[in-house]
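Please annotate the following for my students:
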Amino acid sequence: MDRTFTDTEEDRFETYVASLCDVIGHADREQPLHDYCLGLMLPGDRKSVEPMAALTAPARTSQQHQILLHFVANASWSDDAVLAKVREIALPALRRHGPIEAWIIDDTGFPKKGRHSVGVARQYCGQLGKQENCQVAVSLSIANHDASLPLAHRLYLPEAWASDPERRAKAKVPEDVVFQTKPEMALELLRTACADGVPPGLVLSDVAYGNDGGFRAGITALGLRYSVGIQSTTLFWKPDAAPPPRRGKRRYSHARIRPHQASAMQLALTLPPEAWHEITWRVGTEPLRSRFARLRVSPAGRVAPPPEEWLLIEWPEGEPEPIKYWLSTLPEDTPFEDLVDLTKLRWRIERDYQELKQEFGFGQYEGRGWRGLHHHMTLCVAVYGFLIAERAAIPPSRSGGSSQPQTFAVSNRCKSGPASGANRATRRTVHSNDASAPRRGAGAPPRAMSVLYAAP
C-alpha cells in the first residue's frame, strides 16, 4: 500500500533533522547534514555521495558533491552524539506499544573489492552467505515485538589491519582502536548502553557470539540476562553429576572431567518424546511453528557449584537431528512459550539490516576511511530512526496492518523549522535558488521516499 505523507509529516522530518543539527557542532554543518539525510531518504539506485549530490542539488552537482563528501568523510562531528539524539527522539515512539524487551547483538557484512577500504578482508559475509572480500560492522539494536532501533555500530578491524601502521594511517584509523574479537566488541557496546541508561532487555545473539563463554559471562557481569545461540558441541555437566573436586588450584584435567560432561546434542538425543512440544511464535504478522524442548543445565568450565540455565533446543518434525540450540539465563519459572518467543525475537535485527541496506544504502559508502564509513552508517541509522517514529504514529486503521512498503512524499524544498534562530530557515532550505529544483508551490509533484513496512 502506498501513502503520501502530509505537509505536517514533512514538517516533522524538518524538525527532526533540525534536532540533529543541535548536536552536530558548527552551524555550517547543518545544511550538509540536512542534504545528506534527504539524499538517503529519496529513492535512488545508490546512496553514495555522488548520486545523492545529484538528487539534492541537480543544478550544481559538482559543488554539492564536494560539500557532502567533506561533511561525511572529514568533518569531526560525533557519531555518539548523533546516535544519542536519535535514541532520545525515537525511543519514546518505540516504547509506545510496549517496553523494550531485547538488546540484539549481531554483525553485517558489506562486500568490497580491493584491499584499501578500511577493515576490508576476506572473511565471512552474511549478505553473501560465504567467505568473501568485505567489511564487517558489529551492532547493537534494541527491540520489542512492535519495532526495533539500532543503537550503536562499529567496524570490525581484522588483526592484519590493526597491526599494519601503513594501512591504518591511510584509512585514518584512530590510535585508540586496537584489535578486538567480535564478542569483545559486542561487550563494549553493551557496557556503553548500560552506562548510557538505555532501558534493559534480554540480550540476544547468534552462535558466533553466544558460544563464547567470556561473552556470556560479561553479559551476566553487567546484570543482564541473555538468550544466545550455541553450538551443538557445547559441553554441560551431566544431570545429577557434580564436577569432581579440584586438587588445589590446578585446573581440571580433560580425562577427569569428560565422563561427567555431555554435549548439547547428546542431551537433546536422550530426551524422552514427551519433552518435545509444538510451539508457535510470530515473525511480524506471520505465525511460525516448530518443535522445541528445554531443560535446566550447568555449562561446563565454571567453578562449582555451576549455576543452572535454560538449554533450549529446536528439532522440527522431519529433520534428522536438532537444528538449533540456545542458552538462556531467563528465570526458571519462565513459561515455555515466552522462552521461545523472546529468543526468536532476534529476527528483528535481520529486518533492521534489510531496511538499512535496501532503503538507505547502509553498505554503499564508497570512501576508504574510518571516519567516513562510521559517519555514513550513523546517518543511515538517523533517517531510519525518523521513520520508526513515523511508523509508530500511524494508527492501525491507517496502516491496515499491511506488510507492503509505504512511500513518503517530500518536495525538494524544505520548510523552516522551529524558531530556534532567525537564520535557521535560510541554512535549512534545500537550494531554493536552484532553478532545476522542483517546488510544490510551482506545481511540481513531491518526490516519493521509501518508508518502513507498516507495523505488524
